[in-house]
Amino acid sequence: MASPQTSNPEPRAETTSEGTQLQRARADEITPEMRAVAERENLDPDLVRYEVAEGTLVIPANRRHLGEGLEPMAIGEVSSVKVNANIGASKDTSSLEGERDKLRHALQWGADTVMDLSTGRSNLAEIRRALIPESPVPVGTVPIYEMVDRVDGQVAEITPELALDVIEDHAEQGVDYMTIHAGVLQAHLPYTEGRTTGIVSRGGSIMAQWMTENEAENFLNTHFEEICEIFRRHDVTFSLGDGLRPGSIADSSDEAQFAELRELGELTNRAWDNGCQVMVEGPGHIPLDEIEMQVDKQKEICDGAPFYTLGPLVTDVAPGYDHMTSMIGAAVIGWHGADMLCYVTPKEHLGLPEPEDVKQGLIAYNIAAHAADVARDRPDARSWDEALSQARFAFDWPRQFALALDPEAARNHHQAANSEENHDPEDVHFCSMCGPEFCSMRITQDQRDAAGSDKLSFDGDYDERPADEVKTEQGARYPGVFDNRT
Ligand code: SF4
User: Fold this and answer.
1) With a 6 A CB cut-off, is 440 part of the ligand 1 pocket?
2) Which of 390, 426, 441, 442 best tests ligand 1's pocket when mutated (most atoms within 8 Å of CB)?
3) For residue range 160-206, what is the model confidence (pLDDT) as tens digits?
4) 376, 405, 427 - which closes a domain
5) Are 337 and 399 members of one domain?
6) Is residue 352 part of a domain?
7) pLDDT tens digits for range 246-262
8) What gap in Å lies between CA 96 and CA 127, rounded to an integer?
9) At what angle do helices 381-393 and 440-451 cross, to 10 degrees?
10) Measured in whole angstroms, how far is the alpha carbon of residue 169 from the centre of its chain?
């Protein structure tokens, strides 16, 4: 048996009597973090407290990270839909500088949280410890990856003691939420045998291998209360992993997936009983017509705990474009009640994403999250759309670009398409799509002018607030905003 390596030589933190956000909400306390979330999301602080106490809203905020510049944010029923981006080193990559670049890139393109999925390096703890204070957004991890690294890939040799040691290390480093694959049980494994794509979750496949080789139950489940004790001490939020999520349309909504979901419902209540905050992870690959049913099932079985989904991809036929196949599913699942969307990049199923893939994934998922907020009638969601539409109808090109999700892309497309004409592309009342004679918005304006009304003539005031203020009104992060705030 390989000897487990210890990466954190510092003494363990003492138990604090402060309590988690959940415990304090249940004690009727409105914490500074709840107030910050209320202000950011335009919500009543007491509503935020109530939702946190109910478990339907989480504020992932490790006490250590809070002292290092974390900006409190929330994930749940009453908050705007959030977007997560994955970063992380692997065996062949990368340096601290490389990870810094990935973090900055994710923040620049609008990630509300980042997950460090690092594997295979001896200095993972050092890199993570350096990155967390540089992240104003919550940082999540999947500690089972490091457990595998510490036994040199000999999965069966992971012990519960080693698992708790790794989890404690991550908590002490300031990690705000962790994916814990405690829901996949021995009894579930036979259900995966006839699947088209088997077990596609890395954590799920590692746990299946461990259970099979040791002929023992999932140690993350049998030692769940000890994990809760660590999480409670640091106020780490559970992200209960979906180790048996479907990896293809053919495997969607099968017994393996729902057997694990029922166990995740049990674990949600065990975590709440232990004073810990919880969100629950979801699939994966689901056809459009099953998405609403899947959300309803998760919310019912997990008693309203926030739902954190990967995609879902709504078809399997477009490798190279899975940021698109999944953003369709992400918008629909967000509309029906998912609370945070983990992005998918064009490299999904094909390779490690490059910076441009990260950008494309985050743009796609910010569109999906905002579309879901609009459909859910979230307060202020539509004011951004309204402000951009006003600027568009007024031919105020600079403001239209500033309000765009990706201002640079909008400006570049417009200038490229209109640069050959003998005019300033930012001072015209048409574009090359219809041309000056057929520009329908200009024709409408001319008709209104002829009728004597002003050129805009809509019900309401023209929104003249700075573009960044409009874009951040809902409490989510959006591309470019990070740069303007730092
Ligand atoms: S020319 Fe057509 S596409 Fe371009 S601004 Fe006018 S209506 Fe819109």
Assistant:
1) yes
2) 441
3) 999 999 999 999 999 999 999 999 999 999 999 999 999 999 999 99
4) 376
5) no
6) yes
7) 999 999 999 999 999 99
8) 6
9) 80
10) 23
Ligand 1 atom with the shortest distance to the CA of 395: 5
**Nearest residue by C-alpha to atom 5 in ligand 1:** 430
Ligand 1 pocket, residue 430 CB under 6 Å: yes
User: Which pLDDT value is given to residue 307?
Assistant: 98
Are 349 and 440 contained in the same domain?
no
Query: Which CATH number do you get for residue 143?
Result: 3.20.20.540
The residue whose C-alpha atom lies closest to atom 6 belonging to ligand 1 is 439
What is the residue range of 453's domain? 381-474
* H helical segments located in 337-439: 355-375, 381-393, 397-403, 407-418, 435-438
Please indicate, yes or no, whether residues 228 and 156 belong to a single structural domain of this protein: yes
Provide CB contacts within 8 A for 117, sequence distance 6+: 86, 87, 88, 141, 142, 145
Query: Separation of 442 CA from ligand 1 center, angstroms?
Result: 8
CA of 409 to the centre of ligand 1 (A): 17
Distance 422 CA to ligand 1 centre (A): 17
Domains in the chain, number:
2
Residue 241, domain member (yes or no): yes
The protein residue with its alpha carbon nearest to ligand 1, atom 4, reads: 431
Q: Is 441 in the pocket of ligand 1 (CB under 6 A)?
A: yes
Predicted TM-score (pTM) above 0.85? yes
CA-closest candidate to residue 334, choices 290, 277, 374: 374
| Residue 464 identity | E
Residue 122 shares a structural domain with residue 193: yes
